């Protein structure tokens, strides 16, 4: 398992700070998950504990901070604080992934809901009923919109608890997106496991996934899941949720809806306060766009009219 050997080496324990592209190799993709799964299968508790100890070192956390500062805040002083938050989150999740793998290899289950879920995932024991539900969401980068999908499922744990799926544990999510999911999780009757997957990859230099557009999509996706209803896969919501349950407008609505239209979506919901003009809405056809006032209206609008396959 060469990746775990690199993690356990002095270099990756924090010798020589600086911009370390190797940090992306160690925590930024499926390679780490595959290496940890191999170690779990082999029952290699000793190696996993060694890696966990080295990853938890302050020097390793500092390497992560420097890496994400260079990646997301170079030339953007206002982005330094956000980059530090993302680095702390990704580093913490990397440590927890290894800790959960170690627990799985040793045959024990931690009491912590997140650690417990990840440990069961390593052991292949997290199949949910019903299966994960997909909820589309739109974003904006540079001059155009892009599409992604939330995947929500119910999991053992306290109601309203948001559990990040292991496959998304090392992704760079901004604070607005995380906040939207945590608020949406309040409607779940059990713990809520979630992940967000891009339909098409963004460039390496793209900022972390974030923004208010996830608000209505996450809230409606969880509410439909809790009520046993399916989300219409051809319907997109582009709005944020206010504290009183009304919907608010988001930026770059036209570009996001154009991306939805090009992807074959048939319907889209925006806030009643949207900046889109009636002529602008007409230009988006054949995409049908409706103005929505409340979260309840958005839920009814996005719900499938008949049972759909769960994707």
Quick gist of this model?
The protein has helices at residues 2-7, 22-27, 30-42, 45-55, 58-73, 80-106, 113-122, 175-184, 214-226, 253-262, 278-283, 295-302; strands spanning 133-141, 144-155, 162-164, 191-198, 235-238, 240-241, 247-248, 267-271, 288-292. Helix content is 44%, strand content 16%.
Description:
The protein has 311 residues and is of the alpha/beta class. The chain folds into two domains: 2-122; 133-302, Ribosomal Protein S5, domain 2, CATH 3.30.230. The protein contains twelve helices and nine strands. It has helices spanning 2-7, 22-27, 30-42, 45-55, 58-73, 80-106, 113-122, 175-184, 214-226, 253-262, 278-283, 295-302, and strands at residues 133-141, 144-155, 162-164, 191-198, 235-238, 240-241, 247-248, 267-271, 288-292. The strands form three sheets. A four-stranded mixed beta sheet has the order 1-2-4-3. Strands 5-8-9 form a three-stranded parallel beta sheet, sandwiched between helices. β8 (267-271), α11 (278-283) and β9 (288-292) form a beta-alpha-beta unit. α3 runs parallel beside α6 and α8 (175-184) runs parallel beside α9 (214-226).
